[in-house]
């Protein structure tokens, strides 16, 4: 299941018309008994000169569906200014949907967000760039 998820991510990324280069900064799959863990970090250079960084930790235990435990998806413009960052670091406990949240723009305003996976992020980026 983990390898299928990773293959789908890679396939989707290579077909994105808004991505011009993909760097795999990290991609580890480890297994302990009946648990398999994927930890990846991709850096995607965008057509407009911006950058999208994707980091996600996914765990599969036995035949259970993947559990996306940690994520950070950071999108910045060509000048290095934040556009959006989705993450689930536990540092905004006052927000509904804690720990999931979204940072917006240079002022880093924060709002609640639903949990998001790498594939969901690619859907959102496709919609934003279409």
Search tags:
alpha+beta; single chain; seven-stranded antiparallel sheet; 19% helix; 130 residues
Task: Report the count of strand segments.
Answer: 7
| Overall morphology | globular
Order of helices and strands: HEEEEEEEH
Number of structural domains: 1
Class by SSE composition: alpha+beta
Q: CA-to-CA gap between the ends?
A: 30 Å
- Rg, rounded, reads 15 Å
Number of helices, counting only DSSP H or I runs of 4 residues or more: 2
| Binned strand content | over 45%
Strands in their spatial order, largest beta sheet: 1-2-3-4-5-6-7
Mean pLDDT metric: 94
| Largest sheet geometry | 7 strands, antiparallel
Give a brief rundown of this model.
By secondary structure, the chain is of the alpha+beta class.
Walk me through what this model shows:
By secondary structure, this protein is of the alpha+beta class. It has one domain (2-129). The chain is 19% helix and 47% strand. The protein has 2 helices and 7 strands, in the order H-E-E-E-E-E-E-E-H. A 7-stranded antiparallel sheet has the order 1-2-3-4-5-6-7, with helices on one face. The mean pLDDT is 94.
Question: What's the helix and strand layout?
Answer:
Elements: H1 2-14, E1 19-32, E2 35-46, E3 51-61, E4 67-76, E5 82-87, E6 101-104, E7 109-112, H2 118-129
Antiparallel strand pairs: 1-2, 2-3, 3-4, 4-5, 5-6, 6-7
């Amino acid at each position: 299941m983990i390898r299928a998820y990773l293959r789908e991510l890679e396939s989707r990324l290579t077909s994105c018309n808004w991505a011009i280069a993909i760097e795999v900064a990290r991609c580890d799959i480890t297994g302990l008994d009946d648990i398999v863990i994927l930890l990846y970090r991709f850096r995607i250079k965008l057509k407009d000169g911006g950058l999208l960084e994707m980091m996600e930790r996914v765990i599969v235990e036995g035949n259970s569906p993947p559990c996306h435990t940690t994520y950070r998806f950071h999108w910045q413009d060509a000048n290095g200014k934040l556009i959006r960052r989705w993450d689930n670091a536990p540092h905004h406990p006052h927000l509904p949907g804690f720990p999931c949240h979204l940072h917006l723009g240079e002022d880093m305003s924060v709002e609640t967000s639903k949990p998001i996976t790498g594939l969901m992020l690619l859907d959102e980026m496709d919609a934003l760039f279409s």
